[in-house]
Amino acid sequence: MSPPTQPEKDEAKSNGHNNEDVNGEHNEWKFRAPYKVHDNDPNFKALYEGSCHCGRVQYELSREKPLSAKFCHCSTCQVLHGAPFQWAAIFHKEDINFTHGHSDLGWYESSEKTTRHKLPCKVSCAYCRSPIMDEGRNMILLFPSLLKFKHGEKEKFDPTCHMFYGNRLVDIRDGLPKWTGLD
Q: Where along the chain is composition biased (Basic and acidic residues) (predicted)?
């Protein structure tokens, strides 16, 4: 991938991105999905809006329903969400558009316990700490509880199973398949 052009650098600065971090390393990932801005993209049609608790980070989704939605009971999700499990909806990285708060995003890579953007990583609001999504190499796991659903839309995000149910802290009797691991 070629380095960003001057207009891209100017746009990144206006969106709160800087192409070099404090160590002088290049951060071209800031110009690619899911962080690139779709302002001038006529093909991006926002269907849902979401935000963190404080409202500093705001985003849109363009896909009508997630590729899949699941409840995760892994110990990392339990600790980082402060809950017995988390609800995640899987999307392509191109399906999200951050409309506000690029500079208010924070990252956490749980295996190395670093706050640098290193995949896979957890993405949250750096101010209120609301978890926004998990970013993988090809997909994102977005947390539907941050979306502003209209009547009847939430059902499109209904989970299809429980992952890592062997680590559960509470029994859930909802009739959904329960996987002991990832699948």
A: 7-26
E strand intervals along 54-180? 58-61, 68-72, 86-92, 96-100, 105-108, 121-125, 131-135, 139-142, 162-163
Q: Is 138 exposed, middle or buried (0-12, 13-18, 19+ CB in 10 A)?
A: exposed
* 46-81 confidence digits (pLDDT tens): 999 999 999 999 999 999 999 999 999 999 999 999
Number of structural domains (the chain) is 1
- pLDDT value of position 83: 96
Residue 22 lies in a domain: no
Read off the CATH number of the domain in which 38 is found: 2.170.150.70
Nearest to 157 by CA among 91, 77, 85: 91
Token pair belonging to 124: 């949250």
| Reported pTM | 0.81
Confidence of residue 132 (pLDDT cuts 50, 70, 90): very high
> Is 17 within a domain?
no
Contact criterion met (CB below 8 Å) for 94 and 32: no
Mean pLDDT in residue range 29-57 = 89
Residue 183 lies in a domain: no
